[in-house]
Amino acid sequence: MSKKKKNQVSSKPLSARIYNHRWFYLMFLPVLVFIIVNNYLPMLGLRYAWYNYNGVKEPVFVGWDNFAKMFSKAGFWRAFYNTLQLSIIKLILNTFAAVIISILLNEMVNLAFKKFTQTLIYLPHFMSWVVTASVFGLILAPTDQGLVNTILKAIGVVDGTAESPYIYFLGSKTWWRPVYYVINLWKDTGWGTIIFMATLAGISPELYEAAQIDGAGRWQRMKYITLPSLANTIITVLILNLAKVMNLFESVFVLMNDIVVEQSDVLATYIYSQTFNSGTIPNFGYTTAVGLARSVVGCFLVLVCNYASKKTRGKGIV
Question: 33, 133, 180, 237: least CB-packed within 10 angstroms?
């Protein structure tokens, strides 16, 4: 469009421009309604963070009492620390596992086997967490039907007796977190390799050819070409995902149980249990206050990540 035509378009009244593009606005209308109903209208409920409200009686204004109650509860701080610990460790493990797998896939010469392997490691991502929990519940079952305990029995680690019982991995305060990280690695690492594989595909083959002519071996090419080329992408992925660490829920909810609450309870599951499993009439005002605090921390992390992104990438994420 020429500069003259641009000036003519911009000089038209707003109502005329909207009318000219009315069909585009009409196409966008369902999306706009969906966003307003599902994302913005629920925000009106944030006011209940300053009320006592059980859904039956009229809300009673209590000021900052819900927040004072929240900060005085050991359960809240335990869930807060668990959220940060589980999310950050999971993020680091998944990211670096994805980097390693991407490099290994990139080194494969046989194209057919490479595509088969890629497909194989992507598939777990498409399983729901409910199915994943059921599958690993069977694999890790504390009986002679559980695959892992069967192997441990075969090599003499356990024998299923009272003196050497089967290990209940998902009900052990010692084993729950390591098992949780392993399951997350199995499910999400393959999908996380996509962005790193795209980066590796963009590296000029001429760099490898020049390094090979200069006598660089495979490990040296990986050290001085592949890893430096991935460095910016790794930092970007870590920054972008760090903003989502407070959103942990489904993967924990389907794997946790009453035995390992101290090790597995996160803010989202804490809100759920305080609302539906508290054993008393729930105070929606208190759980709204916890949810609001969680959102504020998440917003803070987004701003921190945006600042870090500007420093490393030259542009923000928001």
Answer: 33
Distances 174 to 16, 169, 171, 216, 267 between C-alpha atoms, Å: 67, 8, 9, 45, 21
Which residues, 6+ apart, have CB-to-CB distance to 84 below 8 Å? 245
Distance CA 232, CA 317 (A): 15
Residue type, 94: N
CA 195 from centroid of its chain's CA atoms: 16
φ, ψ for residue 60, nearest 5 deg: -115, 120
pLDDT tens digits, one per residue of 176-208 = 999 999 999 999 888 888 888 888 888 888 888
- Find the helix or strand (DSSP H, E) in which 51 lies: strand 51-52
Do the beta carbons of residue 59 and residue 66 sit within 8 Å?
A: no
Domains of the chain: 2-52 (no CATH), 74-313 (1.10.3720.10)
Q: Integer distance in angstroms from the first to the last C-alpha of the chain?
A: 29
Q: Can you list the pairs that 120-124 forms with residues at least 24 positions away whose Cβ atoms lie under 8 Å?
A: 120/190, 121/189, 121/190, 121/193, 122/190, 122/191, 122/194, 123/190, 124/186, 124/187, 124/188, 124/190
pTM: 0.83
Full DSSP string of 153-177: HHTTS--SSSSSPPP-GGG-TTTHH
